[in-house]
Amino acid sequence: MPAGLDPRFTALPLDALADAALSRARALGATHADVRVVRIRSGQQMLRDQALESSTDATDLGIGVRVIHDGSWGFAAGITLTVDGAAALADQAVAAARISRPLTSRPVELAAEPVHVGEWVSPFSIDPFEVNDAERIARLVELSRLATGPGVDHVTANLDMTDEHKFYADLAGSRTVQRRVRVFPQLEVMATSEGYHSMRTTNPPAGRGWEYALGEGWDLDTEVAQLPEWLAEQVAAPSVEPGRYDLVIEPTNLWLTIHESVAHATELDRALGYEAAYAGTSFAKLETLGSLQYGSPAMTVRGDRVTEHGLASCGWDDEGVEAQTFDIVRDGIHVGYQLNRQMAYEQGLGRSNGCAFADSSGHIPLQRMPNVSLQPAETDITVSDLVGQVERGLYVTGDKSWSIDMQRYNFQFTGQRFYAIENGRIAGQVADVAYQATTTEFWGSMEAVGGQSTYKLMGALDCGKGQPGQSAPVSHGAPAALFRSVNVLNTEAEGAHA
Amino acid sequence: MITDWIEAGLAAATSDECIVIVRDTGEANLRWAINMLTTNGQMHHRSATVIAIRRTDGIGHAGVLSGPVTSEDDLRRLVAQACAAALDAPASDDSAPLPEATVDADFADEAVGTTIAVFSDFAQGLGRALRASRDAGTETFGYAEHHVSTVWLATSAGARRRTVERSGKVELNAKHADRIGSAWVGQATTDFADVDADALAAEVTRRLAWCENRIELPAGRYETILPPSAVADLMILTYWTASGRDAEQGRTVFAGKEPGTTRVGETLSPLPLTLTSGPGVLPAAPFAIVEGSAPGLTSVYDSGSPAEAIDWLRDGTLERLPYTRAAAAASGQEYAFPSDNLTLDAGSSITLDEMIRSTTRGLLLTCLWYIREVDISSLLVTGLTRDGVYLVEDGEIVGMVNNFRFNESPVDLLHRAVQASATEQTLCREWNDWFTFTKMPALRVPDFNMSTVSKAY
Fold first, then answer.
1. Is residue A28 part of a domain?
2. Each residue of A54-103: pLDDT tens digit?
3. Residues A232 and A281 both lie in one domain
4. Among A179, A309, B253, B444, which one is least packed by beta carbons within 10 Å?
5. How far is A16 from chain B (nearest CA, A)?
């Protein structure tokens, strides 16, 4: 039976709190008001060499009220879940909007959205917080033992779990309750006898329950058992010769490149300048929408909030907009941005595509990325097919280090494993590799994408953006893909001073 | 009264030992972009962390739970849940006895908060700055926030500690209308009384004027002056990776050549640099507040222990590394708690302007951004320059230069730095969401590795 909402959350006086805050906001003249009651339980367990290093279980519960009053935003948040407390927050939010008014040059208006009333729960079988602590740790110990082998000096095992409940109500009449559960087990092995080397599992965080840690959706045991052998090979691997290489990149690595160079670059708030002093802007400017050659014709990227087990999937966003799917890059051309209601209205782009998110009741919803995924080929092109087209190249798997500039142009990534490709075949590992490129050149060099059989849904739990800083979970799907003539650095050489 | 709730919670604990930490936080912020205010807010939050400890043969098994508290009942429930979790918990790797009990005279005092009114004077100056920017055809962006947290920490061994953490920051970013020329200034504060919006606006405007002349330079190694903000970002990252235990296990740049050893005692810089953290010159809590263990660095078992000023680097030589009490006992080292502030001082009296005037040809940076580890063993990091790379020729700033991606190790930079300025309080850019208080010098590096050009501005 599918899991449902937690009755301990739905037993809170959600409607009464919303009624109190919304009626107070309306009485004070607000043209829009929304109320969010959010409970987020997050747990983390960290083992090192099978011993427990850290275990935390934290719950955050509160209420946030946001208003548009006289064309200005105002926001207030607190932890008192009473009718009087909710009404007081509406007072504070309106007061904040009044303070903003003299410094607001353009009245805020929102794109229209139908009224929605309903419930949504992410698909999972076993609530990770209902699993006994000792059982969870026993599973991490079991995986740690699997990862132990010749040449492995240390093993770390981490588990992150989140159970998120959100109630949303607005003046227009929308009322929704949602629950999202996510789990992320990770194992890493280390060798220190011949310099420091490490090898980590490549599985992503997933919008699944405890069953994910047991192997549903990802064969964790098999991957963990291979870590010692992969690590030993890396320790003995030759250092890469820097230069231009063709790269066949696995989704376990490519997802992060998509995240940084496509998903962030197509956030409309960045393109307009609202994040200019912090997260940055974007080279993908509004005036080139529909004409910017973002990548090769093999590149089609979609945003969505509906992918099963996707970390950004939901029923409705934090402005009450229904989850949707939309094109961001079609056949290599930039055709769409991620939107919230304010920006959709301001730019005349019609309905918001549902990309507002706040990481707690204490933060305002920002435009945050949905699941953003590179589409696979319609035909079943395999990894072998892609590798077979490469004379001299590298096969890249797993993410590691990442960095990109504030306009999402220049990036540098490393990975868990880099294998030499010689005459269409994968040879042994090479070490000290980073690939560095400019976004449009990189995606322009993508000659082919793999088919559905190479596709994986990857992602991150903690994408950061905004001030005050907010953290968002997001998934990225990708097939394996072939890129021609990418600049490869030798990180040892980069670190050696002249 | 919150301290009554804490006493009731401790009294209700069924575990062998218990630590209760209550944090009451008031927060206010303003954000602006393109010469107008975009968001603001005032928030209040109160949460508790309960560390319930069960002992078997002296070894701790900890249940660590955090949650919001609005009443005594909330706290008692949290204590009960933590005690139940301790029954299931395996032995902790960082187990240690409860710290010695200290009682603060102000323990029973109420919470101190903040409201958006803390920005009253600053907002007026900001309004003037936004209008001036609009009139000048430039764009101004930025953010100001203020946090006040009152923290109570009590243990079943009798410790009753209280501290008030006040922190704030303001960042001001000015751009030309084409958003190519860009300048940034930032300031840390505890109460905004010392924030002069007009002075910050004047400084960012002065720096934006340096961007009128635009110069393209290729990648390569350049003599580079890293200003205090950039040095702070690099030193904070180094500090976070300085676990003594991890170094002993060969996992960091501070690992010694022989297994099980560290680089303590090794000279890391020819300059007489001293790196210090702890209560004293900069704000920091007088005791350890650890609401979740950070493996190898901090432990929940150390909560309530004294936080002291510690020299990590003295006159260029590595003196100490952070250890939890458990790791220190296992290694025969001294316990060393890494407080959330950092000072680097070479005893220099040279000003940044004097460093610029004595430069024949080199780059002056403003900030570093998106700094990420590439190689843990050497602490090689990559990142970008941001909001102002200036070319200095014959002692004068002659214009702005394109941005670069760099690949460098902060530890190697300490080794190669040839000059340091006087130390001054600064706000780092990359890590200022988590780390507000630093005092740093500017450093001159003769051969900074600008690996590639970034087209970003």
1. yes
2. 999 999 999 999 999 999 999 999 999 999 999 999 999 999 899 888 87
3. no
4. A309
5. 19
A427 in contact with B at a CB cutoff of 8 Å?
Answer: no
Let me know whether A298 and A313 are in one domain. Answer: yes
Output the pLDDT for position A238: 98
Average pLDDT, chain B: 96
Average pLDDT in the A17-46 region?
98
Of B87-96, B196-205, B390-399, the poorest mean pLDDT is in B87-96
Among B22, B24, B36, B43, the strongest candidate for a mutation testing the A interface, having the largest count of A CBs within 10 A, is: B43
Helix-helix angle B72-88:A133-146, to 10 degrees: 40
| ipTM score | 0.93
- Closest residue on chain B to A132 (Cα): B88
Which residues of B fall within a CB distance of 8 Å from A53?
92-94, 293, 295
Is A2 contained in some domain? no
Q: Which chain A residue is nearest to residue B124, measuring alpha carbons?
A: A103
Query: Of all residues in chain A, what percent carry a pLDDT higher than 70?
Result: 99
Q: Render pLDDT for B83-93 as a digit per residue (tens, 0 to 9).
A: 999 998 999 99
Q: In the listed set A212, A236, A260, which residue is the last one of a domain according to the structure?
A: A236
> Are residue A231 and residue A250 in the same domain, yes or no?
no
**Which of B34, B64, B447 has the CB atom closest to A57's CB atom?**
B64
Q: What percent of chain B is modeled with pLDDT above 70?
A: 100
Residues A157-167, mean pLDDT to the nearest whole number: 98
As a whole number, mean pLDDT of residues B195-218 equals 97
Same structural domain, A230 and A248:
no
Residue A468: domain span: 243-495
- Which residues on neighbouring strands pair with residue A383, listed in sequence order? none
Identify the structural domains of chain B with CATH numbers, from first to last.
Answer: 2-208 (3.30.2290.10), 213-235+347-454 (no CATH)
Q: Does A469 touch chain B (CB under 8 A)?
A: yes
Half-sphere exposure of A469 (CA within 13 A, CB side): 12
Q: Does one domain contain both A217 and A292?
A: no
Domain membership of residue A1 (yes or no) is no
If DSSP states are collapsed to H, E and C, what string results for chain B? CHHHHHHHHHHHCCCCEEEEEEEEEEEEEEEEECCEEEEEEEEEEEEEEEEEEEEECCEEEEEEEEEECCCHHHHHHHHHHHHHHHHHCCCECCCCCCCCCCECCCCCCCCCCCCHHHHHHHHHHHHHHHHHHHHHCCEEEEEEEEEEEEEEEEECCCCEEEEEEEEEEEEEEEECCCCCCEEEEEEEECCCCCCCHHHHHHHHHHHHHCCCCEECCCCEEEEEEECHHHHHHHHHHHHHCCCHHHHHCCCCCCECCCCCCECCCCECCCCCCEEEECCCCCCCCCECCCCCCECCCECHHHCCCECCCEEEEECCEECCCCECHHHHHHHCCCCECCCCEEEEECCCCCCHHHHHHCCCEEEECCEEEEEEEEECCCCEEEEEEECCEEEEECCEEEEEECEEEEEECHHHHHHHCCEECCCEEECCCCCCCCCCEEEECCEEEEEEEEEEEECCC
Which among B44, B374, B457 is the nearest to A79, CB-wise?
B44
Shared domain for A232 and A247, answered yes or no, is no
Min distance B249 CA to chain A CA atoms (Å)? 7
Asked if residue A340 belongs to a domain, the reply is yes
Counted domains in chain A: 2
What band does A13 get if pLDDT is binned at 50, 70 and 90?
very high
A183 lies in the same domain as A303: no
Under DSSP, the state recorded for A322 is B
Instruction: Check whether residue A217 and residue A251 sit in a common domain.
Output: no
Which amino acid does the sequence have at B58? G
Contact across the interface for A133 and B89, Cβ inside 8 Å: yes
Which residues, other chains included, contact B154 with Cβ-Cβ below 8 Å and sequence gap of 6+? B3, B6, B7, B10, B19, B20, B107, B160, B161
